[in-house]
Amino acid sequence: MSKILVVAEHDGISLHSGVARVVSCGLAIGAESLDVAVMGQDCAAVARQAGSIAGVSQVLCLDRAENARPLAAVQAPQLAALAPRGYSHLLGPSTTFGKDLMPRVAALLGVPQVSDIMSVESERRFKRPIYAGNAVLTVEAPADHTVVATARLASWPAASEGGEAGIEEIAVDVELPAHSKWLELKTAETERPDLQSASVVVSGGRALGSADNFSMLYSLADSIGAAVGASRAAVDAGYVSNDMQVGQTGKIIAPALYFAIGISGAIQHLTGIKDAGVIVAINKDPEAPIFEVADIGLVGDLFSIVPELQAALEDS
Amino acid sequence: MRKIMVTLKRVVDYNVRVRIKPDGSGMATDGLKMSVNPFDEIALEEALRMRERGEAGEIAAVAIGGDECQQQLRTGLAMGADRAVLVKTDAEVQPLEAAGILLEMAKREKPDIVIMGKQAIDDDCNQTGQMLATLWGRPQATFASEVQLEGGTARVTREVDAGLEIIEVQLPAVITTDLRLNEPRYIKLPDIMKARSKPLETLAVGELGLSAVPSLKPSGYEPPAQREKGERVEDVAALVGKLRERGLVA
Q1: Domain spanning A2-169 has what CATH number?
Q2: ipTM
Q3: Among partner residues B168, B229, B249, which is closest to A224 by beta-carbon distance?
Q4: How does pLDDT run across A60-80, given as a tens digit for each residue?
């Protein structure tokens, strides 16, 4: 049986929705115990949220000033120092936070890292996507070494609420580097649901033609409580900000309903949405590859279809 | 003057769709068009721009793999790298091992900045830069979309899930590139000719005195679950009807 430690992503106030998904991945490994490590400053509230996830045994709270903002170089030594407490697995989310941090932890421990676990075959055997999701590789982590891994969030359901794990304040005695300084986070203020956890997502591509035209998608999204995403082409063209990119190098998402509007469907985009429940494609090109994966396809001019769709959905 | 080391991984070209070998023993890459990993190309482009702005001097490009990787190093030299080193091995190289090799190269080359792609588009691991930074005991700035150098520091804008994060790291440091850092230049014919006379050194991996590191054992390749091709609808009313049928919208 395994003893698992999940690292918590958070913004100092709220736990990231992905943590409950990483917990699911950990439970699938067959955990004798599953603890969550919260590194932060004044992070008692976040620790409580982590403790309320069902299946969590214990929350370890590493409260110190250096943890006020997440810097991989500062957090990795602390996480690595927890490994000798008998943990067989250290798990993080496959988000920019986890991707930045976990390889650093693995290197400190001198072990390889398994990226993007999509399914668990056994304690040490995992499936993960390669080649932009064109193939699924089964890999086995070496015996007698700590397993360090990230979980592909879209492959795992969120563990339910209702846990009552205790919170333990931990002080780890490790020297932290001073060579990295956090300066600023620029984030687009939005009232819309989070792209990574929204149940409905409306995404736009290059065919939208301009940043202004994206307002059409915001309007549709707001009328149905959806998050808004974009293809790489739309981000590269400057229509929307980078945090909205869905795909191989952007966000991998699994909403119940996904609208791909004016998106041709490059393989790199499809890899970001293949776990969506229902994919709706709206595109004027009937040969667009997006129609190969769409559950419902509508060929036509998005500029007339989108307002019509919004009106029809509001008319209920 | 700052010295820069960039990595150039040989991968199947971005535009080629790779399939699994019929016996499931690996990917069928024989005969496919090979290129520099696109994120590494962005890394080299960034180094070239630093040099053009007078912020950097020599640029060394490093590849790890078989003799065929010389092609990608020649591409890098044609783009503008000053010299290239191939660390030769015919074995599969995983990120931890690659980071160990690059650490030895960093000790030899003593770069102020190592710039590399955030991930390779074949294994999609997104690990090597972070592991190199760790083994080297240096800071990392991953997923960079803007780099500003000032004295002994780099101020790096990072593409993170929540938006754009800015951090400052002391040099030497490892920077990994995201897509929007720059758009790599096209290579002109005279540059290809010129690249032929630039130095390309080959080192056997054994000469670096590395010890074996634990690695992941691949045990099977399979195609991803395919989504069923769905249906076409004629108009918005039919679309909304289908969504209501499935209980997806009110």
Answers
A1: 3.40.50.620
A2: 0.95
A3: B249
A4: 999 999 999 999 999 999 999
